[in-house]
Amino acid sequence: MTQLLRNREKKAPLRDRKPPPALESIETGRQIRRRRLWKIAGTAFNLAILLLSVVILVRTFATVNYWELRAAIQATSSHQIALAFLFCATSYLSLTGYDAIALRHLGLRVPYPTTALASFASFSIAFTLGFPLITAGTVRYWIYSQAGLSAAKVASLTVVASVTFWLGMVLIIGASFVARPAAIAEVDHLQAWINFLIGLGAVGALLAYLVWVARGHRRMRIQGLKLELPGLGLTLSQIVLGLADLCSAAAVLYFLLPSDHGTDFLSFAATYVLACLLGIASNVPGGIGAFEATMLNSVPAPSPEALLASLLLFRVVYYLVPFLLALALLGAHEGMRHWTSLREAMNHGTDED
After folding, report:
1. Cα–Cα distance for residue pair 161/102, rounded to 1 Å
2. Is 180 exposed, middle or buried (0-12, 13-18, 19+ CB in 10 A)?
3. Residue 73: is it exposed, middle or buried by C-beta count within 10 angstroms (0-12/13-18/19+)?
4. Most CB atoms within 10 A, among 260, 278, 311, 334?
């Protein structure tokens, strides 16, 4: 009997045989070491960006005349401020579409006021405090769970909304690098033809993604979460929304710049997106430091004080004001929810009497 079992084991196909436990542990050890190396490399990259940003900011602030900075802030016209708030509202309105598209893709029905509140509050808080997976995810779950969504559905919604953001970024980088390679060369200090190739690569990657989702290859797995990405129609809507959001956000800062900056909007939008990418890579809340350093080193201005004044006003208009408004709306939402529960309880008690 023992000899018969041994013969069957010898005749078994190689694909059916399990690797020895020692080989499994070695492979696991290799994967762990690879993950550790990638983590160390990512941390080193983040620290390098942060250190470079600090150096640029320290050098800039060392030469800043604070009286001239104050004068530059006061010189900003009410017309500039009004345009900045208008495009800020347009950007955050586009962001509510991120959640609306994700909900439609997931086949979930949530009233638009609830969607708008969850999107606006989660994005504005995440933009200011950073750590979007924690801050934005917590706010979204708090609001959407009251509408009956599970944690898995909220996680899927967050991933789809993030894809919308990145699709818009890729399109802006591709279009601007192809259309303005020489102007972008003054920012990234690369040859114009290299920037042109980068733009073609970004556009090609976006087209390849569209073909990929159009052919139905949309299933993916992210940290144990199984997700199906939107199809071609919704993906095109994602691109339009991402483009509208990022262009509106860039316009906030663009119209706060001094009138004689001499930068066309398409080149500026590419610079803005690159600054956002470095801010995200620095892993600092709001990308503060890395974003400002990139702009100070890239955008022409009559003086450092004039550009720094525009950046400070941008932080107030696009980050601080929406953040405070989101906190107020969340407080009002929670107060109304508790008041409704109390009123229902009182009505129920009256009915029983």
Report:
1. 6
2. buried
3. middle
4. 278
